[in-house]
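Milestone M4 deliverable, item 7.
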Amino acid sequence: ITYLKWYGLPKRLFWGVEGRVMYLQLYKALAKIVEDFRPDVIHVPWLNPEGVAGCLLGKKYSIPCVVQAQGSDVNHYLRHYPGRKKFIRDIQKATALLFVSEALKNAATNLGLTHSNQKVIYNGVDVDTFKPGKELRSNKLKTIVTITKMNPVKNLGLLLNAFSRLPSVYQDNAELILVGDGPDRQDLENLTRDLN
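Output delivered:
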């Protein structure tokens, strides 16, 4: 594992060219990794700056580059930050563009990001491997767990409010657990107390 250090510019001003900035700063180190490792494919699980830097590297070395949109890279950065056209031009260099949901792909399309080779691949879980053991379940409640950074873009207050409004026939047989930390944590804890 190699951790490369680079210096980013303020996203609010330079988001659309941030991938190029990353690529230019890391080019020598990335070139050495490519020459030593000789990868068959570059997979980048974030659109920008990593996705664009990966696309530029793949183009330079004729290595297929697959870039995967995860969520906030479309729903927040692509939607609200400057330089969308420059970013879209650069990300078109990807061999394929993946999305973790149909809704995310549709959001990207509505913002002008499409690709001739785009697919939806859902994040999944192997339910044969990951299932609650009988010895671990001491109650009959259905448990809903979300593990995430507690920030405004996640809108976890909406989830708490929705859960609190479930009819008692459902709410009495379920529990909601939020796992994580972030700037909204205290507000979410206060909302939970208010709703109980």
